[in-house]
Amino acid sequence: DGTTELVDLYRYKKLGELETNIVLQAGDVVHVPPIQFSKATVKIEGKVNRPGVYQLAQNETLQDFLLRVDALNKDADLTEAYIRRKGNSNGSVETIQAFPYLQAQGNGHSDLVLQDGDVVMIPPRQEEVYVIGAVLRPGPYVYYPGLTAIDYVGFAGATGKAKGLSKIQVFRENGAKAGLGPNQIVGPGETVSIEEKREFG
Question: Is there a contact between 105 and 165 (Cβ–Cβ < 8 Å)?
């Protein structure tokens, strides 16, 4: 009948708004327009599903943008994400830490509106090393290349019930034994284990 409807499939796909997924009729024509680079755009880089340049919706927040372009994956480190934004007049570049705005805890940081020319950078998540056994603080620790098993036991703090340091074991992600002893180099995703002494009587 010559009428036109504007459809926002993002609101259906990501927000579950069923009314935005309209029913097609015989003779309908679906037109998907290309990005208009003359309008506001944002570039996203790093460990994201589809890096590139995206057209920016009016008053679009950082969180809405990341959801709309389906940017995030399990390897993204949101705690280290940041936005590069050009200054207004002097050409300087401002760096804005993104994580406070993504926490959305009602702290005034959850509504950062993106601007034309912003660059959103999402670095890859740093792998962790797990320390278990006779330590004061078992759990995950940030992986640093070149550190040994004794270094991670030092982070976690060995207890008085720990066996000798020569008994420290390192296990790979699949559970296979990677090595024995305090000087064993630890890789990302591996587990460092120090056994407790067995007490009798």
Answer: no
Confidence band for 175, pLDDT divided at 50, 70 and 90: confident
DSSP secondary structure string for all residues of 128-162: EEEEEESBSS-EEEE--TT-BHHHHHHHH-B-TTB
With the CA atoms of 6, 12, 15 and 17 taken in that order, what torsion angle do they form, in degrees rounded to the nearest 10?
A: 80
pTM for the predicted model, two decimal places: 0.56
Among candidates 19, 67, 69, 15, which has minimal Cα distance to 43? 69
Alpha-carbon distance of 116 to 60, in angstroms, equals 11
**Contact yes or no for 180/169 (Cβ under 8 A):** yes
Identify the band that residue 115 occupies on the pLDDT scale cut at 50, 70 and 90: very high
